[in-house]
Specification:
The complex is a heterodimer of chains A (573) and B (368).
Chain A (H helix, E strand, L loop, with lengths): L4 H34 L15 H8 L3 H32 L5 H7 L8 H12 L5 H10 L11 H26 L2 H9 L4 H30 L2 H7 L7 H10 L8 H36 L14 H27 L18 H8 L1 H34 L5 H9 L6 H14 L9 H26 L2 H8 L5 H30 L2 H6 L7 H10 L3 H29 L5
Helix pairs in contact in A: 1-12, 1-15, 1-16, 1-17, 2-12, 3-7, 3-9, 5-7, 5-10, 5-13, 7-9, 7-10, 8-9, 9-12, 11-17, 13-23, 14-23, 15-16, 15-18, 15-20, 17-18, 18-20, 19-20, 20-23, 22-23
Chain B lengths: L4 E10 L9 E9 L3 E5 L6 H9 L6 E6 L2 E5 L4 E2 L7 E4 L11 H12 L4 H14 L15 H13 L5 E5 L7 H18 L3 E5 L2 H7 L2 E6 L2 E6 L1 H6 L4 H7 L3 E10 L3 E6 L2 E6 L8 E6 L5 E4 L9 E11 L3 E8 L2 E8 L9 E5 L6 E3 L5
Parallel strand pairs in B: 3-9, 3-10, 7-8, 8-9
Antiparallel strand pairs in B: 1-2, 1-4, 4-5, 5-6, 10-11, 12-13, 12-15, 13-14, 15-21, 16-20, 17-18, 17-20, 18-19
Helix pairs in contact in B: 2-3, 2-4, 3-4
The complex binds adenosine-5'-diphosphate and magnesium ion (MG).
């Protein structure tokens, strides 16, 4: 009956903390460290001899750098602002008003998650391209203006599409805080003779400020590091942002040797950004949680009556779905059914054929890419779900050492562009070639595990902070040993959230382009890189057909994710 | 340490973080077999911490904790039995009902964890426990569909089913509404007596503590300030803090004039008073304590010539059915009196207030 608990528990906690630090160090710190070292090597290879500052001076004294940075910032700020506005308006309409068919909209609101940003970008070039863009053609006909009416190949075009791509995530982050403002506060405000608008402005918005700020920050960082839409829309129109610049340094350098050293030097920018942002986000996050704790689990307030405003409200929501799902999907479907790229027009119905789709199923490369995609997504999702659970459990529930640093490391990849992480992993595994993952799907899995860990650990942290510690203590006081508490109490309570994280990562790993495109070799082509290849080599109809099938898989995963997070109450991304 | 003590906590201390104030300091209590023992004190005084130290959910920095023959914790010897190996059950403030289990599964969990009995016997015991708390017909209910009172009962059933040597309860009634709280308090009282369970109970509600407890430990800022049965704590507090915490009371400055074998005379701003059984020396300043319900209000006509009797005028009265609270003025001093409504006076009436010498107490001045 005697057991020296403090000692054994200490030792266990130290071991757990050490193991987590090791794993996170390997996944996150080592790649970044190698990038930094590469910045000072003559040819940008981390373990070659010699030291040079040429790459750093080249990268930072580059006369194009200020424009590159200001373009990236404009893009990120514009896209995040659009996404937050759309997300907030949607959250307000769907969570707080008596808008007609709310149930339908709420169920449908995650559908855009099934549209990979890469495909959204492709679809919008089909809809708003200067020559064949169907909206441009229509708008020109109506207004009589000649030439392209709107041009998607512009910074505002990129901002518009990225804003649409980020809006569903913004909605998911804001829906819970907007919906949960306790009825008590609402009623107290009403009894203070405040009208609905005044209540919204004076009570709701200030209470929501931390949540909105946190959401805006996450969206902004996503805009800074994103690759796919800048690559699809920006690169053809010579609008370069940091991520596409890095890709360019690795793939199309003027003098043909990849400029690894400069990529390493540019990583300083992101590491600097990271340090600042993570600190800021943690602050905002803590504040947001405090507000949530205050509002507690009150009853929902009675919905705000829209009256005549319900018509514009419904029109807005329909327009949202039109722009994010229906029109892009229709454009892709149309293109996938054509033998060659052409505009959308009833005159061409006679041309439609399913041959691209049949070719997809008959194409050995496509089949193997599909299998690779599923393997990568499955492995990355499982790795993130398990690691995020362990990180959240350790950070929130243990008293072991290094909890803060582990929490920070798990959040760090948020601000690292996928292309940069891809570059870093190339260095790591070209250097440590005793682990032969270079050029295999495993290297993509490692990149995704790092990239999506911030999402996973944040979601798990959210659930963990909602679970009262007394639930576990009650089990211990019922005579359950720690392993039994983990098995019988914590794990079952976490399963829905873990499922939700798993499916979210699964869906994102299927659709992401940035890391796979850096890491692709002959043997690890996935659906997104295959699609990208066809698109870039001028075969948009085949790319569209692949896209349609990717969307089908993603829709299933998204629906599954939604069901799982409903059950787990973990919908806050 | 008394022989009969089932639980003994000796000089236990706990500090949560370096440099912060101690949450619990030099805590020593003995709990006897079958006793209902309450830790009482204002919020943040360290009651929950003390309970959690006994439970093993926190580790003390110093001291010793023993349950029956088993040493649970001994800082000097490096002994610290883990929570799940202590023969102690606990009911939490949040109830902590596991939402993924049914009512019956919740109650079965301790028996399964301890690996006691066969399956059929476990179920019989769990049902008996649910029956005891009046939830017999709810065993298959999902625990997410329970009201606050029902969750409370499940938590109780889960604590009694394992028949631990000691049951700890941390403010179990604080999340219930008033009517339910009164009912549950009565049920808890009966249940503890029926089971003969040894209970350590935490509350900040002095009425709850006095109605339920055999003995109360009064805490303040992490320290034990008084320990005794409810009657002693209420009628003969040791400090102004204790007097005020257990109920409404007057505290007036008083100077001890003479001390005799049976009592003493003190001087106050409204006159001299006889007080029974004082252990103080003449000449020092102290606090006179008297509770409003001990002040007797009589018509002016009943000029019973007695000590401790003063003429006063009713300044205000508050009628609340069963009782009436008067505020009376003796010269420039105000005094409250709480009486039944059997006889009533009106505002402006002149009355006599009698302060029984047996109910007047003298308390040290320092922490007034
Ligand atoms: N886990 C903890 N970490 C740090 N301080 C704590 C913790 N739990 C309690 N405290 C502090 O210890 C003191 C005593 O708390 P507690 O035992 O919960 O009081 P009570 O139950 O009497 O209200 C308080 O000052 C409280 O803030
Ligand atoms: Mg407490």
């Amino acid at each position: 009956m005697k057991a020296s608990a403090p000692a054994t528990r200490r030792a266990g906690e130290w071991a757990a903390g050490g193991a987590l630090l090791l794993v996170l160090g390997y996944l996150v710190v080592l790649p970044l460290l190698i990038l930094v070292v590469a910045a000072f090597r003559p040819h940008g290879f981390p373990f070659e001899p010699g030291v040079t500052f040429a790459h750093v001076t080249n990268a930072f004294l580059d006369p194009g750098l200020p424009r590159l940075i200001s373009g990236t910032l404009t893009f990120a700020i514009g896209a995040s602002a659009l996404a937050v506005m759309l997300g907030l308006l949607l959250a307000f309409l769907l969570e707080r008003t008596d808008m007609p068919w709310r149930g339908v909209w709420r169920a449908a609101v995650v559908l855009p998650m099934a549209m990979p940003p890469m495909l959204l970008g492709i679809a919008w070039t089909l809809l708003l391209g200067p020559r064949i863009g169907v909206f441009n053609v229509m708008l020109s006909e109506w207004t009589g203006v000649r030439g392209p009416f709107l041009n998607i190949y512009s910074l505002s075009g990129m901002i518009f599409v990225e804003g649409l791509a980020l809006a569903p995530s913004a909605y998911l982050m804001l829906a819970a805080p907007v919906g949960n403002i306790g009825s008590a506060m609402q009623e107290a405000a009403a009894m203070s003779a405040a009208g609905p608008l005044r209540r919204w402005l004076k009570i709701d918005l200030p209470l929501l400020t931390p949540a909105i700020a946190a959401c805006a920050l996450v969206m902004f960082v996503a805009g800074l590091v994103v690759f796919d839409i800048p690559a699809i829309i920006g690169v053809p129109s010579k609008i370069i942002v940091l991520s596409t610049h890095i890709y360019g340094l690795a793939h199309n350098p003027p003098e043909s040797l990849p400029r690894y050293g400069e990529i390493g030097a540019l990583s300083f920018l992101f590491i600097g950004l990271l340090v600042g942002l993570v600190a800021l986000y943690q602050r905002l996050g803590a504040r947001a949680q405090r507000y949530v704790a205050i509002t507690g689990r009150g009853w929902r307030s009675s919905p705000v009556p829209l009256r005549a405003w319900k018509y514009p409200a419904v029109a807005f929501v329909i327009l949202y779905f039109l722009l994010t799902v229906a029109a892009p999907f229709a454009a892709l479907l149309w293109t996938s059914l054509l033998p060659y790229q052409a505009r959308i027009s009833p005159d061409l119905i006679g041309l439609l054929t399913v041959s691209n789709h049949l070719a997809f199923f008959g194409n050995a490369r496509a089949i193997s890419a599909t299998i690779h995609s599923l393997e990568v997504a499955l492995l990355a999702a499982s790795a993130v779900a398990v690691l995020a659970f362990l990180v959240a459990a350790y950070v929130n529930r243990s008293r072991g050492p290094g909890r803060r640093i582990i929490d920070l490391l798990a959040a760090a990849p948020l601000a690292i562009p996928g292309v940069m992480m891809g570059m870093a992993l190339i260095f790591v595994y070209l250097t440590f070639d005793w682990l032969p993952v270079y050029g295999t799907i495993w290297i993509i899995v490692l990149a995704f595990a790092a990239e999506y860990l911030p999402f996973g650990s944040r979601a798990m942290n959210g659930v963990m902070s909602q679970l009262h510690p007394e639930l576990e203590e009650a089990a211990r006081m019922s005579g359950a040993a720690p392993s039994r508490v983990l098995r019988k109490i914590l794990l079952p309570l976490f399963l829905p959230a873990a499922m939700a994280v798993w499916l979210w990562v699964f869906a994102h790993a299927l659709r992401a382009l940035s890391a796979p495109v850096m890491l692709q070799g002959r043997d690890n082509i996935v659906l997104s890189t295959l699609l990208w290849g066809y698109w870039n080599s001028g075969e948009p109809t085949i790319a569209a057909a692949i896209g349609i099938w990717l969307i089908v898989i993603l829709t299933l995963a998204t629906i599954g994710w939604r069901l799982a997070s409903r059950r787990g109450g973990a919908a806050h991304v | 340490m008394s022989e009969a003590a089932l639980l003994s906590v000796e000089r236990v201390a706990k500090r949560y973080a370096e440099g912060s104030a101690a949450a619990v300091e030099d805590m020593t209590i003995d709990v006897r077999e079958g006793e209902f023992f309450t830790l009482l004190g204002p919020s943040g005084c360290g009651k929950s911490t003390t309970l959690r130290l006994v439970a093993g959910l926190e580790s003390p920095d110093a001291g010793r904790i023993r349950l029956a023959q088993t040493v649970l914790f001994d800082a000097a010897k490096g002994v610290n039995v883990q929570s799940h190996k202590r023969d102690i059950a606990m009911v939490f403030q949040s109830y902590a009902i596991w939402p993924h289990m049914s009512v019956l599964e919740n109650v079965l969990f301790p028996l399964e964890s301890l690996g006691r009995y066969g399956r059929a016997e476990r179920i019989a015991l769990a049902r008996a426990a649910l029956d005891r708390v009046g939830l017999a017909q709810f065993e298959h209910r999902s625990s997410t569909l329970l009201s606050g009172g029902q969750q409370q009962r499940v938590a109780l059933a889960r604590a009694i089913v394992r028949q631990a040597r000691l049951v700890l309860l941390d403010e179990p009634l604080s999340n219930l509404d008033t009517a339910l709280r009164d009912q549950m308090r009565d049920e808890l009282f009966v249940l503890q007596k029926q089971l003969g369970a040894t209970v350590v109970y935490v509350t900040h509600d002095q009425d709850e503590a006095m109605q339920l407890s055999d003995r109360i430990a009064l805490m303040r800022s992490g320290k034990l300030v008084d320990l005794g049965d409810p009657r002693r704590l209420y009628l003969e507090p040791r400090s102004a803090f204790g007097a005020k915490f257990l109920g409404r009371t007057h505290l007036h400055r008083a100077k001890v004039r003479e001390v005799s074998g049976t009592g003493s005379v003190v001087q106050t701003t409204f006159g001299d008073l006889m007080i029974d059984g004082v252990r103080a020396s003449a000449g020092i300043d102290m606090l006179l304590m008297i509770r409003p319900e001990h002040v007797e209000v009589e018509p002016q006509s009943s000029t019973r010539p007695s000590a401790n009797s003063f003429e006063a005028r009713i300044v205000s009265m508050r009628f609340s059915g069963r009782t009436v609270l008067y505020e009376a003025a003796i010269g420039g001093e105000r005094l409250e009196a709480l009486t039944t409504s059997s006889r009533m006076f009106e505002q402006g009436d002149v009355v006599r207030l009698h302060l029984p010498s047996s109910r007047c107490r003298l308390l040290p001045l320092e922490d007034a």
